[in-house]
Write the structure tokens for this entry.
Amino acid sequence: MAPKTIIVLLIAILTAVGLTSFSMAEMERMSTDDFQSPTRPAAVFSHDDHNSEAELEDDCALCHHVYEGKELVKDESSEDSACSECHSLTPTEENTISLRTAFHKRCQSCHFERAKGPVLCGECHIRKERIK
Ligand code: HEC
Ligand code: HEC
Ligand code: HEC
Ligand code: HEC
């Protein structure tokens, strides 16, 4: 191989490696702002990428649901509301699902059902230094 070809190849490999680590760093995180004194690193969740990989783009209401009292309103979506607008830190009579339970129940249960996606604490609550 001519030295020039090797250099071109090297640049190509380095660019590919660089791009991979860049996209890892792009993994978005949730916010812990709604919790009074968060104890875990914010969970990783790249909203749009996640939902297209899991084929949920047409099912916003699966996560952003609407309730009337205790009745789920089918096919209506609440994507303009934060989960914390209805789920408080401690359960209430109107809403017995605390905010933390709301997230865990929604996120973890589907990963278990489909046997895909993270189910262990440290797989979602990843410490910053572990994402390169
Ligand atoms: C499928 C992903 C996922 C898994 C697995 C998961 N969590 Fe969470 N957890 C979340 C999300 C999303 C939130 C809400 C946003 C945030 O705080 O990061 C949350 C919030 C929390 C909170 C409240 C906020 C805080 O930091 O105090 C605690 C505590 C917590 N999780 C602990 C755990 C523990 C302990 C486990 C394992 C038994 C676990 N989580 C597993 C996604 C996950
Ligand atoms: C797998 C669950 C899930 C699905 C499916 C989903 N979302 Fe979300 N979305 C979330 C979570 C979790 C948040 C953060 C909510 C919070 O922090 O209270 C969010 C936040 C949002 C926000 C607010 C963003 C911001 O900057 O605050 C919008 C807008 C949104 N989603 C739109 C949509 C639309 C439109 C769809 C369907 C095409 C959709 N979502 C499908 C889980 C989901
Ligand atoms: C418009 C208000 C509202 C919003 C916004 C909302 N919820 Fe709920 N959610 C409710 C009510 C009401 C219940 C039923 C509570 C009860 O039975 O005590 C519920 C129940 C749940 C349940 C248990 C039933 C089930 O479907 O498994 C989960 C999990 C849940 N919510 C997760 C979420 C998540 C995650 C978000 C944000 C992406 C969210 N909710 C946004 C009102 C809301
Ligand atoms: C209805 C099913 C479903 C729900 C609800 C769901 N997930 Fe997932 N999740 C998946 C599937 C399927 C995968 C694997 C996607 C793949 O790579 O094929 C996945 C993968 C992931 C991954 C690995 C990285 C990625 O994006 O592929 C993370 C992190 C994750 N989910 C976090 C969450 C969090 C946080 C929530 C709640 C806000 C959530 N998921 C709700 C189905 C779901």
Observations:
- The chain has a mean pLDDT of 86.
